[in-house]
Amino acid sequence: MIGSILIVDDEPRYLRLMEANLITEGYRVLKATNGQEAVHMVGDKHPDLVLLDVMMPVLDGFAACQRIREFSTVPIIIVTARGNENDRVRGLDLGADDYIVKPFSATELLARVRAVLRRAQNIGSSFQQTIFNHANLRIDFARAEVFKDDRIVYLSATEYRLLLQFAHNVGSVLTSEQLLVDVWGTEYREDKEILWVSISRLRQKLETDAKNPQHIVTRSGLGYTMPPL
Amino acid sequence: MADQNNGAVQLQPQELDAVYTLSQAVASAISTEAALDKIVKIARPIFIFDNIVLYEKLPENGLDPTYARAIGRGRFREADLAWGEVVANEAFQNGRTTTRFEELDGGSTDRTNIRHFLGLPLRLAGQSKGVLVFIRFGGPVFTPDQISLAEFIALHVAQILERKQLVNQIANLEAKRRLDSLQDDFIAMISHELLTPLGFIKGYATTLLREDTSWDESTRREFLSIIDEESDRLRNLIDNLLDSSRLQAGTLQMAFQTVRLDTFLKELSLRVRSMHEDLRVDLELRTPGLQVSADPTRLTQVFENIISNATKYAPGSAIKLILDKKNLQARISVQDYGPGIASEHLDRIFQRFYRVQQSSTSVRGSGLGLYITRKIIQAHDGEIDAQSHLGLGTTFQIYLPLLQKSDFSQS
Questions:
Q1: Do A103 and B53 touch (CB under 8 A)?
Q2: Is ipTM over 0.85?
Q3: Domain that holds residue A32
């Protein structure tokens, strides 16, 4: 399969090295020099694979991997000098598909790229949604921005994570416990009121009529849902 | 206004008791949430409320709820209930205890539609920490005495938040300290700095060795030059490591001889110009004829280190070398006009493996150059210091003892 590959590294010589080798295999190469740029490019250019360095300015590779996974299943290979077990496990847990430790040989790099692309092809179409729309609500996942009637709405980090749970599960009823664990953490499992306040605040910010919500609806005794339109 | 009543409050025995228990609870609580739960439990019998919400100030100056309890009427209305956002924002903006009353349609049948809000700004030592909101459904209104008691509770909550923030700050400092000490970690330094050039050598060599593809002549040359340069870099790094451990152990051999500094600096600036074609080097010999006892190879290493730093961290800037005399010492200043070094880093740049954080990711370096530089100067009985102004540039000054007449006869 021939496709486009986004390579991300703050060392020009690594970019050159990867680019030179990938081009010989017929891949189209896109380049970014930090994690922030990488997240935006995944959103804008839809590459078929991302080769991601870890230690970079602005946004490091682990954080970039996490951000990309908020809206895309594009295969990610982490390429880094940090090869200890903790780092490898962390990268894979954040959603990376494979891990290459520097120094690496050119043939190994190409073989891993082929393997990951093959796997992705077998699994089928990759999911990517950069812009999410729900009536007058719009979320730009790559930039982590939320708009109501085309006007930007400022959410706290917690509110944004809470909103993502609904946007990723339109039509499903999410229980309070599920939301508390996913957004706040296991130790908040019982802390229902904090969820109520936060949902109330999200409604104040996002709903046209907070008392008659369209985006986040209470399903009494069950939980909350973002209804399909 | 609540603050007018502060002096006039007469606490009942039951209230006094609660106030005392409250202080104790705050002092002994292990977590913020546990402390707040205790406060709710103690305050509730003497001070009726249905909902309580703690809004904490975010670093970017908004409010985020971090604690909430619904204990009275309307516990089943969940997110549809009133949580006092409006009164919280108001109290936060004006910094004063704020009350608010709302009556929605259907107040006569559902008392949760009649809402009394009490917003208490949480302030400690003039700093705003957030807002505590009490909500009472159906009434009665909050009396001045109750408001005073609520303000007392708010003060305790502010203290709990203060304590939590201090604990977090300590944890952050601890993490930062560990990061700093990581820079002393030889292994961590090795893994990154030695592996970078090695990674290029391995990568480009295996690229050229690929059997399934061929490279044109100019690409081959490009890759081979990278391998060549990176091998030199690796060699340099290993030399620096060896030097630094020899200097640390005091076993670095010096070959002292009489050196005329004006001649030395002229030769040095010629060399530097030939090594960095685009670099402007201005030499100002204010006091010619100064002589010192030095190892010229090591002294060259000192200046090359400083100048190579300037080309890395102050790219595009000219460099000025000034030679003069101060007291009985020769003084050589190396000046650049780059971004400068912040004062908190200035004291530490001569430490082994110390690197200025912001630049570390974009510029390659081992954190050894200036350490070696200072050690070499100290081996010459000299001194080196650095002065810097952000945005204006950095000046390194090297002081070396001048040769006296008696020294001449010896050498």
A1: no
A2: no
A3: 4-123
